[in-house]
Design brief:
The protein is of the alpha/beta class. The protein is built from eleven helices and eight strands. The chain has two domains: 3-159, 3-Layer(aba) Sandwich (Rossmann fold), CATH 3.40.50; 171-265, Orthogonal Bundle (ProC C-terminal domain-like fold). Helix 6 (160-169) packs across helix 11 (245-265). 31% of the residues are buried.
Length: 266
Amino acid sequence: MKIYFIGGGNMAVSILNGLRDKKFLMSDISVAEINDKRRKEISETYKIKCTKNFTSIDKEGVLILAVKPDQLSFVCSEIKNLLKDQLIISIAAGIKIKSISEHLGGDKNVIRAMPNLCASIQKSITPYFSSNLLLNDQDEIIKAILSSIGICFSVDNESKLDAVTALSGSGPAYIFYIINALIKAGESLGLSRLESQQLTQHTIIGAELFSRGLDSDGLNSLIKKVSSKGGTTEEALKVFDSKGLNAIIEEAIIAAHKKSKEIGNN
């Protein structure tokens, strides 16, 4: 199976790393990248074919559109005459399958996927959607590629990808924000940067493992388990509640969701 990337940015490189680690045949992978320096780096690092643009794409191949949303229409117009029945995976945030298909000159086998930054350490969660019914072997191909950077699953409605973008696509930044705030709070209480960083990061790792698979009741039960009556945790949670932290987080996710829909409609 031949795999073609258009765009050699950070996410493309993350997927290349994942494919290499999963023992994909790198000689079957090609990248089209307009930046000369980037193209040379990718070619030398992965020992794969890198070109400024493709002149042909194998009819049994998989094309990964790994360009920024504002570049997608131009890129599609450049390659549409090379396409017939190839599987096409787009990781351009917010751009709907209908728009991509129109840019490509008509109905194509387009799959939208939404990985996140954690793909760079092969810990992404990547939902994907296809408007066409996928054959079993096609779905297996998509899963094989996307699972090289973490875990993946299909969603039953394309509109869910806007929610995915808001929650997990942007999600790493929210967690980094919270981690940074906790570290700074620890420093303000007299801990060194290293001490506060270790305490914060290991607490988050442990809490995440503890919470896996739990529903809302289960999570609330864990909160109560840590919160002794009249104790320090209860005091901190009172501040969260008084400041409306739940509402703030929800408002932020809704704003990101709205922006994702706006991008898709432009």
